[in-house]
Amino acid sequence: MESRTLARRLPDGGSILTAIGFVLLVNLVGAAPSAVSSPDTPWFRALEKPDFYPPAIAFPIVWTLLFTLLGVALWLVWRCDADGRRLALGLFAAQMAFNVAWTPAFFALEAPLVALGIILVLWGLVVGTIVAFRRVDRRAAALLVPYLAWVTFATVLNFELWRLNA
Question: Where mainly located (predicted)?
Answer without folding.
Answer: membrane
